[in-house]
Structures are given as C-alpha cells and as structure tokens.
Amino acid sequence: MRHISILVPSGNSSLSNLEATYKMFSMTNEAMIKAGKPAVFKLQLVATNEKARLSNGIFSIIPDTDIKSVDRTDLIIIPAIHGDYSKVIENNREFVPWILQQHNLGAEVASLCIGAFLLAETGLLDGMDCATHWLAAEDFRSMFPKINLVSDRIITDENGIYTSGGAYSSLNLILYLIEKFAGRELAVLSSKIFQIDINRNSQSPFIIFHGQKSHNDVEIIKIQEYIESNYQDKLNVDDLCDRISLSRRTFERRFKKATSNTTIAYIQMVKVEAAKKQLEIGHKNVNEVMYDVGYSDAKAFRDVFRKITGMTPVDYQNHYKRAPVF
User: Fold this and answer.
1) What is the pLDDT of residue 324?
2) Is 218-320 in the same CATH topology as 2-206?
3) d(CA 172, CA 169)
4) What pairs with residue 82 in β-bridges?
5) Residue 326's pLDDT is what?
6) How many Å apart are CA 128 and CA 138, to the nearest integer?
7) Ranges under pLDDT 50 in the chain
8) pLDDT 10s digits, 111-169
9) Does the 218-320 domain belong in CATH 1.10.10.60?
10) How far apart are CA 9 and CA 88, in angstroms?
11) Per-residue pLDDT at 191
12) How many angstroms separate the CA atoms of 267 and 271, rounded?
C-alpha cells in the first residue's frame, strides 16, 4: 500500500486542494475494495506539529499526524498556500528538511498550483521543469531562476517530482497520479465521477497576458508600453531599438532580461491578448480581428494564436464568445 502524506501547511492554504485530493484518492480505494481488491493508498494529513490546525474562518482541518511521527512515506503532496510567497516559505520552513529527508529515502513529491513555491525552496526542482499558476509566473521566475518554469503546462513529471498548473488544474495531476499508481481504468473512473477532462494538458487558454513590468529597466518599460499602445501596427524590432537609441543586440539582451521574453514573442503575446478580447466579445469574425491586431496573413495569425493559446482563433471564439441574451 502506497503511503501518501498530504501536507497541512501553516497559513492560508487551499482547503479545496486538500479536500479534493483526499477525496479522489479515497474514492480510488473505495473502488478497489468494491472490486474485491485491497486499497492502494494510505492517506494522512501531515502538519509540522501535533497541535497544528488549519482554518479559513469557516471550515477547519485537523491533521492526522505530524512530520516527527512519519518515519517513511511514498508520496508527499504540497497544496497551494496563498499570501506573500516569501512569508509562506518562512512560515512553513520546518517542512523543507523533512521533505528532503523523505525524498532521500525514496519518496516522490508533488506540488499543487502555487504549492510549487514551497517545493522549489527545497532545491529539488533546480534545473527541472515546473508548472504553477500563471498569475504567479513572474514572482516564481524571480525567486527561483534555476528552475525552468513552463507556465503553459498542466503537469510536469521530473523523475518523481511533480507539479501542476493553476487552481483546479491540480485535479489533473491527481488523476495522473491515480493512473500511475492504480491504473488507467481507475483514473478514467475518477475523471467521470469528478467530471474532469483527463486529456487536458495545457493551461494556455486560461492565461491572461498582462505584460511583465516588475523590473527596473525604465527604457524597456517605455518600449513595452509603446507595443501595448500600438499593437495594431506592424511593429519592427529595429524601429523599437531606434526609439531608445540602442543597438539591436543590446536591446534584445535587455528586453529578454527584463521580461523573460524575446521582443518578437512579447509583441505576439500582446497582439494575441488583444485578439482574444475581441473574439470573446464576438462582434467581429476572425479575419476582421486578425486585421485589427496587425496581421494580414491568416496562416501566420492562426499559427501564432495557436502557439500561445493552444487553440485556433475559430475554436477560441466558439468556446469563449459571449452567449446571446434573449
């Protein structure tokens, strides 16, 4: 039987993460027992000390045990913990050496949504891919530059170190773990019971691009603001360089350092975000929207749109446009 330790952190942790994770693994056990087979998971809610309690002011969670009492576990699950990320890590630092100790003993570790910040603090993700909520991407990259953040991904699996995308996409990681440890049949059953799309592999359609301006390069911020105000034009990188009197090489280096994107990629994301808003309103067809955001080549527009959102412009409009009010 696989022992699963679901952490109960200090602070404003996601009770929905904890409850859904516990329920999905428990229901897998129930399905196994109903089929005349032994349960596959032993679940425990684990805190840093025996007196710990987690409450959101309405509901409370009482842990089953604490880290001092768990000598060996097979899988550690870190839920999302909301608030200032540095303070969240500091308030839960006692978990870090225990996670490392258990990993050295063979335990696998999974983070849900922004639980990735606590997992990243262990160093286990250094040099690896990691997913988290797209809203936290800039802060994550700034705090953990050694980790390759893949903000469009729903799930990463790096040799038994797992991470998930934002919010309820964590349910896809739980399904993935159920399939890995209990089989595809039970994972499909869980997906049907909890009505989760088992094949969803990207959070790209849900990402809202706000521009990355949490840096101190004033000249690059001016260029970002110019791009965002003139996205409907055919923007040229050399012209942008001239606006702040920099060589292209220096400009590209500073732009990438400040925004974590190339200039071309940034322009594309700004244009696609503008197109998404128009497609959601639904007053214009795809070609009209394409011209409005500065594209004249339908294939180029479709390819860029799909690369960023994971959907074609037509599919996106059909999926998200406002329903008519009768």
Assistant:
1) 57
2) no
3) 5
4) 12
5) 47
6) 17
7) 325-326
8) 999 999 999 999 999 999 999 998 898 899 999 999 999 877 889 999 899 999 987 88
9) yes
10) 9
11) 87
12) 6
Q: Which helix (H) or strand (E) holds 86?
A: helix 85-91
pLDDT of residue 325: 47
pLDDT of residue 201: 66
The tokens describing 211, both together, are 């521009």
Helix axes 248-259, 218-229, angle to 10 degrees: 90
Q: Is the CB of residue 216 less than 8 Å from the CB of residue 236? A: no
* Closest to 74 measured CA to CA, from 122, 4, 21, 25: 4
Q: Are 48 and 92 in contact, with CB atoms under 8 Å apart?
A: yes
Strands (E), 2-115: 2-7, 12-13, 41-47, 54-55, 60-61, 65-66, 75-78, 81-82, 108-111
- Classify 309 in phi/psi space as left (phi over 0), alpha (psi -120 to 50) or beta: alpha
> Would you say domain 2-206 falls under CATH 3.40.50.880?
yes
- For the stretch 281-289, contacts whose Cβ atoms lie closer than 8 Å and that sit 24 or more positions apart, written own/partner, are 281/321, 281/322, 282/317, 282/321, 282/322, 286/313, 286/314, 286/317, 289/313
Residue spans per domain, the chain: 2-206, 218-320
Token pair, residue 50, equals: 């025996």
Interstrand relation of 60-61 and 148-149 (parallel, antiparallel or unpaired): unpaired
